[in-house]
Design a protein that fits this description.
Immunoglobulin-like, 2 domains, 6-stranded mixed β-sheet, 51% strand
Length: 350
């Protein structure tokens, strides 16, 4: 998932932070809830996993909210809950005294009254030298409400060594959304906040602004090639589109306008199914995806002049997108040309 060079990027899929109702999870076989001081109404819940494989859960880890005197052990499924905590931002330390493979994890976690903050702590292997930096992209992002963003991340160790397969701990600040173990952030509340990644003593922060729903955002729209010979040929029409509400594949189409002809509507297909961000629970629906279609252009059928000159044909193409809320966007028109036949060369004089 990560490149082996420190400056490369791959789509990172990592851990989770969410604001959810208090009381889920549990330590020590479902009972590891440590009551807090009177008046504390915040809670910290989550899971302890291996940073080298977030599917590996770590039991009997000790999760301590420093400065509160509160801690809990993770249960057999790696889950823990600490209730009755004060609000504020606290350093949370995770140790694994019963593990011969894993060490510690540390993260600064914001806690809010009457809410449970969920964090999956990714614990570093003991054999790994301490990370020195985290590379994260994008650093600044604006998302529609309900929009999702897959962060690209790379944990880097001494001598600029990229740690293959090592995942950070993710924490969301500002109450704006949650991030999954796959490293995909979901915008849940309009406002500004941060997405923080932690690995050892290394930390990286990204800023996120969540805005009210907008019409689909067309990031790019292209036609290639934009010039064809008189015999016609094939063009590839591509687009990249984002929308917080989601868009069904059948609602992403291109309109082709031949010169002097009737409009032609052509359906597009997702061209990056492995990295596109799908809608939750709805098939053939995407929040962020690339689309494309090959279109076979017929030969130029303009009638040549008596001198044998055939005028070129100009096509105009536009992208049409409708999201699940019914909002629509249309791109500017892009043109491509089918060349005409040149007149035959004049016969040499006698």
């Amino acid at each position: 998932m990560h490149r082996t060079r420190a400056l490369g990027w791959l789509t990172g899929l990592i851990v989770a932070v969410a604001i959810i109702t208090a009381g889920c999870g549990g330590g020590n076989d479902g009972g590891g809830v440590i009551p807090g001081p009177a008046g504390g109404t915040a809670a910290l819940t989550g899971k302890v996993v291996g940073a080298d494989n977030v599917a590996t859960v770590i039991a009997n880890a000790v999760v301590t909210v420093q400065g509160t005197g509160r801690s809990a052990n993770s249960d057999g499924a790696g889950n823990f809950t600490i209730a009755g905590l004060p609000s504020g931002t606290f350093t949370v330390l995770v140790t694994t005294p019963q593990s011969e493979e894993y060490g510690t994890a540390t993260a600064r976690v914001p806690l809010t009254d009457n809410q449970a903050t969920t964090v999956s702590f990714a614990v570093l292997p003991l054999a790994l030298a301490q990370p020195e930096q985290i590379l994260l992209d994008p650093i600044n992002a604006t998302l529609d409400l309900n929009g999702r963003l897959a962060y690209r991340v790379q944990v880097v160790g001494p001598d600029n060594q990229a740690y293959e397969g090592i995942e950070p701990t993710w924490v969301v600040g500002g109450g704006i959304g949650q991030i999954t173990p796959a490293g995909i952030f979901t915008a849940q509340t309009v406002g500004s906040g941060q997405v923080n990644a932690f690995a050892g003593n290394a930390e990286r922060t990204a800023t996120v602004v969540v805005v009210a729903p907008r019409a689909p955002q067309i990031a790019s729209f292209r036609v290639n090639p934009q010039t064809l010979p008189a015999s016609g040929g094939q063009v590839f029409i591509s687009a990249a589109v984002k929308d917080g509400d989601g868009m069904r594949v059948q609602d992403v189409t291109v309109q082709i306008l031949p010169a002097g002809g009737e409009p032609i509507e052509v359906a597009m297909a997702v061209t990056n199914p492995g990295s596109a961000i799908a809608c939750a629970g709805q098939p053939n629906c995407y929040i962020d995806a690339s689309f494309g279609v090959n279109y076979l252009v017929p030969p130029n059928d303009n009638t040549p002049t008596p001198e044998g000159l055939q005028a070129e044909e100009v096509y105009s193409v536009s992208l049409l997108v409708r999201d699940l809320s019914g909002m629509t966007s249309q791109s500017e028109f892009v043109e491509f040309v089918v060349q005409g036949i040149d007149p035959p060369p004049a016969l040499p004089g006698i």
